[in-house]
Design goal:
The protein is of the alpha/beta class. Helices cover 52% and strands 11% of the residues. It has three domains: 3-159, Rossmann fold, CATH 3.40.50; 179-314, 2-Layer Sandwich (Beta-Lactamase), CATH 3.30.450; 335-512, Hypothetical protein af1432, CATH 1.10.3210. Helix 1 runs parallel beside helix 2, helix 11 (343-358) packs antiparallel against helix 12 (362-373) and helix 11 packs antiparallel against helix 20 (503-512). The N and C termini lie far apart (96 Å).
């Protein structure tokens, strides 16, 4: 190694590191790749106490290009690589860079090539073929240039990671906006907004939104996480004190009590409330110190989040009211026939369970539950004498009873909104058969809507397992035998298979919503 360079680096190592303030931050991971032990030692001595953007450095050593690739494979969060070109082979460093970029597909790590034999790899060729931060001859690397390379490379790494986090956050926000009728869209929006905020502030991705709800007391026992990113992802619904460190809970609690923003050098907790009365705190910790401009950004962010929360909450309230009205209307039919007590609730829950077993998303399962609850809507127009007749129906009476399908469909025809349009198809088609032998249109197979096919299985199962004025309840064995016989005829085979494979869960729903004794 060049003696003048070694002396200069050793003298630079004596420069004091930034004062510690007791805040533990994640270090920048620096991978030093060189087959000379002296290079590792001097690099560590020269830069070991340096802080960049408030974060210390952690050096990882590799002595060959192949070893560096394996290290990067297991530690993709390494921020910067100082790579020698000539090691086990003349182009070992270049081969390692090729593997890191193309095999491992790591586009975030910044790479500085260092070589003592520049003729082995001309600079313009290296720059053209590889995404590197810089290419230097070892004799060029004075102390100042080495530090400048480090600072520039780590700054660029931080920018790239922040941009990627912002992209992922934006994708979640867009996804939430496109799925406004899904129950979890608010949670998706919250997580997306947190991710974007963390990226804008160059903070680590460990962030949460904590809520007390409208009536909960402002104590640690009332603080629940409603959205989280980073290491807090998946902690939604848990108490803050079970997930967050004590100092974070203290900052959040203070923000709730004072109704203000609590800002430290490396954290902030900001309170915001909606007009509906819900109260929330956004908490995020940063690896670098917050600036006044960051505080203004957070305040603007929370104002916009409040508007988004209120709009989504209003939409959610409208959706819940709509569903409640639909269920009340469907339940009104039960009042006309003692045989139908809790029939709507059971069929709705059977259908939702079958939808979940089929792999439908939560939004689709919720919509299926409403549509299934409305399947007998048209029976409101059937006379009591026919609806509650204890004996066999005449041909005329049966034709009248079967008209409940077209009557119910006509009630929903032309209604706006995806939920009501979907319900109309379910009402119109839930008596169609898989083999085409059903009514009113004789639809075959997948010509009938999926929700209608699912509701058909749920409806028949409930009709057979409950007593009616014209029959006794069938046993579980009789019903399962009937479903097997009708697989491929009345019912779609895969739905029958799923139903029978999970019959215990359906029987639990039946027990939970069994009709009360008179």
């Amino acid at each position: 190694m060049n003696t003048d360079l070694q002396d200069e680096l050793l003298s630079f190592a004596a420069e004091p590191a930034p004062p510690e303030d007791g805040h533990v931050v994640a270090p920048w991971k620096i991978l030093v790749v060189d087959d000379e032990e002296e290079v590792h030692r001097v690099t560590r001595l020269a830069l070991g106490d340096i802080h960049v953007h408030g974060r210390p450095l952690m050096f990882i050593d590799a002595y060959s290009g192949q070893e560096s690739v394996e290290i990067m494979r297991h530690q993709p969060d390494i921020a910067m690589v100082l790579m020698d070109v000539v090691m086990e082979t003349e182009h070992a460093g270049l081969d390692a860079v090729q593997a890191i970029r193309h095999e491992l597909k790591n586009r975030f790590v910044r790479i500085v090539l260092r070589t003592g034999q520049p003729g082995q790899a001309p600079e313009h060729e290296v720059v053209r073929r590889f995404d590197i931060n810089d290419y230097k001859e070892k004799t060029e690397l004075t102390t100042t240039k080495l530090y400048t390379l480090l600072h520039t490379g780590l700054s660029l790494h931080r920018e790239l990671v922040a941009m990627d986090q912002a992209r992922m956050g934006l994708e979640q926000v867009i996804s939430a906006s496109a799925e406004m009728f899904e129950q979890q869209s608010l949670e998706k929006l919250q997580q997306g907004l947190l991710q974007q905020l963390a990226a804008l502030l160059y903070a680590r991705r460990d962030a949460v939104i904590v809520s007390t709800g409208i009536t909960a007391a402002v104590t640690t026992h009332g603080l629940r996480i409603v959205a989280g990113t980073g290491s807090y992802q998946g902690s939604e619904g848990r108490l803050a004190e079970e997930v967050l460190p004590p100092e974070a809970v203290a900052h959040i609690e203070r923000a709730f009590i004072d109704g203000l923003m609590v800002v430290g050098e490396h954290h902030f907790a900001v309170h915001f409330a909606t007009r509906s009365g819900s109260r929330h705190v956004v908490y995020l910790s940063s690896e670098s110190r917050f600036e006044p401009s960051d505080v203004r950004l957070v305040q603007l962010f929370c104002r916009n989040v409040t508007i988004a929360f209120e709009n989504l909450a209003l939409n959610d309230e409208i959706r819940r009211s709509q569903r409640q009205l639909i269920l009340l209307l469907s339940s009104a039919i039960e009042e006309r026939s003692p045989d139908l007590r809790n029939h709507v609730q059971r069929v709705s829950n059977y259908a939702m369970l079958l939808g979940r077993l089929l792999g439908l998303g939560k939004g689709s399962v919720d919509a299926l539950g409403v549509a299934a609850a409305m399947h007998d809507l048209g029976k409101i127009a059937i006379p009591d004498a026919v609806l509650n007749k204890p004996g066999k129906l005449s041909d005329e009476e049966r034709h009248l009873m079967e008209s409940h399908v077209t009557r119910g469909s006509a009630m929903l025809k032309g209604q706006e909104g995806q939920l009501l349009r979907q319900s109309e198809m379910t009402v119109a088609q839930h008596h169609e058969h898989w083999d085409g032998g059903g009514y009113p249109l004789g639809l075959r197979g997948e010509q009938a809507d999926l929700f209608a096919r699912i509701t058909a299985v749920a409806d028949v199962f409930d009709a057979l397992t409950t007593a009616r004025c014209y029959k006794e309840a069938w046993s579980t064995e009789q019903v399962t035998q009937y479903l097997r016989e009708q697989s491929g005829k009345q019912f779609e085979p895969r739905l029958v298979d799923l139903f029978l494979a999970n019959i215990g869960q359906f029987l639990e729903i039946q027990k939970r919503f069994s009709a009360p004794a008179d």
